[in-house]
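FAQ: What does the model actually see?

It sees only this:
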Amino acid sequence: MSHVEVMTGNQAASTAACLARPDVIAAYPITPQSSVVEDISKAIAEGKLDALISEVESEHSAMSVLEGAALGEARTFSATSSQGLAFMYEPYFRASTLRLPIVMAIANREMISPQTLWASAQDSLSVRDAGWIQYYVENNQEILDTILQAFCVAEDKRVLLPINICYDGFYLSHMSERVDVPDQAQVDAFLPQCYKPDHIYLDPDRPMAVDPLTNGDLLMEYRQKHLEAQQRALTVIEEASEVFFNLFGRHWDGCVEAYKIDHNTKGAIITLGSMTGAAREAIDRLQSEGLPIGLIKIRVVRPFPKTELRELLSGIKAVGVVDRNVCFGWNTGIIYQEVLAAISGSPSIVHQPFIAGLGGEDITIEMFETAARQVVTLAQKKNGSRDQETIWLRSVSEEVHK
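And it is asked to produce this:
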């Protein structure tokens, strides 16, 4: 039977990783991720987890170790943040293009400069096109549950791709919440206990070259199959979510979650990660006033769930995207640009970009109320431009600064 514990987001991540019975773990400590692998190391030392942990000299080495382990039929896990993710970029890209189902948590942290340790999804979103699947989660329970689902999705023969589970540094990594922890037998019933590849692996009886020099035709085939696998992952993610719900009673709505959206809704706020909790409160308040505003939470950024998003936005007049990151060169946030691409065939939707919470600044309920009221106002306008200038939401004032 499951049991309830109060744990931080990093503890939820390490607990889930241990329950998945990985064979090899490799990571290098970096704030705010460090305690994830510290807790796993402790579990191994105490005999609670039968696994090998590699104490590497850098994040580049950590991902390289896991690639070799995955090629040798090992289930693998790691965790990192920010500059650590940047340092492992070369093997990070190779892990996906070799189709290795590595699972790695990312405790999101802003990139330098200026120096900061605090929350932003800038780190993981900056590498969203390196071929990995990327989940973004809202709370500590979702961290645990999604890591378990990630192993299931990554190792599915239709997918065979590495997966990131991204969660806000400090807001989740170091803050404690109630978490329902399944027992080992429940997890074993959900997740096969071993990873058995048949597409690529190291076998002493069948020597092979891994990652040989390729020509254009072969590379074209690799990339096409990779992209097709990412698109199949949308279905596999939904399937894994349903199976998980049937076994554990918790449902995370696959790739996209809608909150209080129906045929009367005229505007929608779109969020990513832990800010969604404050957004829910704001939507509840505004709907009690009669405002026709709802909420959409993006759970999976790669592959981007454009079809689901378009369906949810059918009938919506205006949408506002609140980003805790920036898209350099566009003067907006990154998720805003992703949403814009998804709804490019919907000329009737007015779209409003917002940026908030950089460097770990709180994104308050009041900020979401301000944003939502702006979106409702745009939805009620009969004429006007679809493209709006970015609004920066700051805590230093209740006003909106452009």
